[in-house]
Design goal:
By secondary structure, the protein is mainly α. The protein is 74% helix and 0% strand. The protein has two helices and no strands. The protein is rod-shaped, with a radius of gyration of 34 Å. The N and C termini lie far apart (77 Å).
Length: 139
Amino acid sequence: MPERRVPERLTVDLAGLREVRTELRRDTNEALRPGLTTAQRQMAWGARFCLALECAEGLAARQSVNDVLAQHRKNAKSQLQVAEGLATALERIVENYADADRRAAVRISEIEKEVYLAITQLQEAAKEIPPKPPRGMLP
């Protein structure tokens, strides 16, 4: 597989990530989780047809539907876990970028202070050194 070129600069839209995270959390908590709970409750009994009729075709059909319902429950649970995991990952990403930005801002501030101090010290030192008289001139 050929290597992909990595961009020299990566820009992250933290506001956009926060918005996506918030929407995903809200959709998960207000729609997916309650919907899954309702569906699980409604499908808990499984297939209810052919209970009184003991024929091979009816039993096979009921077993097939029950297998589909069981797989649906597994898939829905997995989908909920993935949505929650993705929302948590987005929260961590936003937090990590925000922390990195804060640390970088503090470090930049420290560097600016050090540079300002160095410039001030150099200016003070330059004031203390008397200028040399021009060459060939008597003092």
